[in-house]
């Protein structure tokens, strides 16, 4: 299995400025994953193509990020996390400039692939840099910094993209990354601890090939299901991806020096990330997709009004954020996870009851609460997954977690789209313009309850070393 980590810091010390730097780079990476949506018509007009063709630039970016994460873990171990993190920022920044300078769709797509390669290294390697320098007692504070980009970027992306496209040009979606990336690179040179790599660390080529192909096939298949409907090609890709990942798992369990140390799944608090945590992120990721469609197609609202209402989720995320750590410390991980998932399921069911006659302040309050529950659950899962992981398993746990987050985001949109099509053809909830959305939200609420059930099975003192919610001996890490 994976050998000792060569560049662990000699002593752990909480560094909020480092965590803030990593969070800022995450925000750039997450934002660029979806910000192009509102700029597609402008880009299509400049390149003289149809708007639907521009979607390939988003798909290329997301697929590259997902496929690059497994390799980034090995790169950080082989060459040192500091070196790879700085390289990631540089690649992302230069690629952003190339995106802005692109003269046709082909060049833009290739530049987005390069940008995705930088993003693939920034996310897991940046997290690894922070986690290695953070003692367990400060893990909640560290993850509080790292969680907010994933919560805010999907909500802010339409507003940022719309503002730049309307008042400047679509090029500024990428140009803004240049000064930000330059500042982040300089800050990284000063803040990230200088570490060494393991020159003797070999790359598990077979494990990498199977994992990369599996993740890439799943992401492309999910993109196809979510954007273009069910078909033979997306289904075949999903099947091939699942088969490749199963083969990768089989290989890494028997390999002497595997790409990932799969013993991390023996830790119950980490395993919750791939069970209840995956379901939680999947259902939550469907909300930014379903809500704007409900408001525009179901209620007949214009995009501006729809976007303003969805911003209530963003306000809920921010409003509750200062309280998430005290809440987890007061009640512990298990009660918080059970509450967050169940409360989120209730808000989904409440969204199913909305109609064009529902008072807008009531809709705003509902989405505000949904955003708050979303923030609590994200923070709890992000912290508890590393609560019982030993230092030698941290790189594998971090890379696996980052990959699952990418898959959950794609699966959320795909599952939401599938439910919409299902209830559009099966008129269980009537024939009105919002009937399909009513069914989709109820279905997503039912899916979310699976996360609640999984959280109930956690030990009552799960992750106590991190939450410090109890004085008694923490749960055994295995089993």
Automatic annotation (TrEMBL):
It is found in: Cell membrane. Keywords: Cell membrane, Membrane, Transmembrane, Transmembrane helix, Transport. It is a multi-pass membrane protein. This is MFS transporter. The keyword Flavoprotein does not apply. Residues 18-463 form the Major facilitator superfamily (MFS) profile domain. The chain crosses the membrane at residues 18-44, 56-77, 84-103, 109-131, 143-164, 170-193, 205-226, 232-253, 278-295, 307-324, 336-356, 362-384, 396-420, 440-458. The keyword Transport applies. It comes from the Bacteria. PANTHER family: BLR6921 PROTEIN, MAJOR FACILITATOR SUPERFAMILY MULTIDRUG TRANSPORTER MFSC. The lineage of its organism: Bacteria, Bacillati, Actinomycetota, Actinomycetes, Micrococcales. Coiled coil: none annotated.
């Amino acid at each position: 299995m994976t050998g000792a980590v060569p560049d662990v810091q000699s002593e752990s010390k909480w560094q909020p400025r480092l965590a803030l730097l990593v969070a800022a780079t995450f925000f750039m990476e997450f934002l660029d994953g979806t910000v192009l949506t509102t700029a597609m018509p402008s880009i299509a007009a400049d390149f003289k193509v149809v708007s639907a063709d521009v979607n390939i630039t988003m798909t290329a970016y997301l697929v590259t990020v997902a496929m690059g994460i497994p390799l980034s873990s090995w790169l950080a171990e082989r060459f040192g996390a500091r070196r790879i993190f700085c390289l990631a920022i540089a690649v992302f920044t230069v690629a952003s400039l190339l995106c802005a300078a692109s003269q046709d769709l082909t060049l833009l797509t290739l530049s987005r692939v390069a940008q995705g390669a930088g993003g693939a290294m920034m996310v897991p390697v940046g997290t690894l840099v922070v986690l290695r320098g953070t003692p367990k007692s400060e893990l909640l504070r560290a993850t509080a910094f790292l969680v907010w980009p994933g919560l805010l970027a999907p909500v802010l992306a339409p507003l940022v993209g719309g503002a730049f496209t309307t008042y400047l040009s679509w090029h500024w979606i990428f140009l803004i990354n240049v000064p930000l990336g330059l500042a982040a690179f300089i800050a990284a040179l000063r803040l990230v601890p200088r570490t060494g790599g393991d020159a003797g660390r070999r790359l598990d080529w077979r494990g990498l090939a199977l994992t990369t192909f599996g993740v890439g096939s799943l992401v492309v298949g999910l993109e196809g299901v979510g954007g273009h409907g069910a078909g033979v090609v997306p289904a075949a890709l999903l099947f091939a991806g699942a088969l490749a990942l199963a083969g990768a798992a089989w290989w890494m369990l028997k390999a002497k020096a595997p790409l990932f140390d799969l013993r991390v799944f023996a830790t119950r608090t980490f395993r919750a990330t791939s069970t209840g945590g995956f379901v939680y992120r999947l259902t939550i990721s469907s909300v930014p997709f379903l809500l704007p469609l409900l408001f525009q197609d179901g209620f007949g609202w214009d995009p501006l009004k729809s976007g303003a209402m969805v911003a209530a989720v963003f306000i809920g995320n921010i409003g509750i954020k200062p309280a998430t750590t005290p809440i987890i410390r007061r009640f512990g991980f298990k009660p918080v996870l059970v509450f967050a998932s169940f409360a989120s399921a209730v808000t989904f069911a409440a969204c199913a009851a909305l109609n064009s006659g529902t008072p807008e302040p009531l809709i705003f309050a509902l989405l505000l609460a949904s955003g708050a529950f979303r923030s609590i659950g994200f923070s709890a899962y992000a912290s508890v997954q590393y609560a019982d992981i030993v230092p030698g398993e941290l790189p594998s746990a971090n890379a696996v977690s980052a990959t699952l987050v990418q898959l959950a985001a794609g699966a959320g949109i795909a599952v939401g789209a599938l439910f919409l099509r299902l209830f559009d053809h099966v008129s269980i909830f009537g024939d009105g313009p919002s009937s399909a959305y009513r069914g989709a939200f109820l279905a997503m609420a039912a899916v979310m309850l699976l996360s609640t059930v999984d959280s109930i099975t956690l030990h009552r003192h799960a992750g106590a070393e991190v939450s410090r919610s109890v004085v008694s001996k923490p749960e055994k890490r295995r089993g």
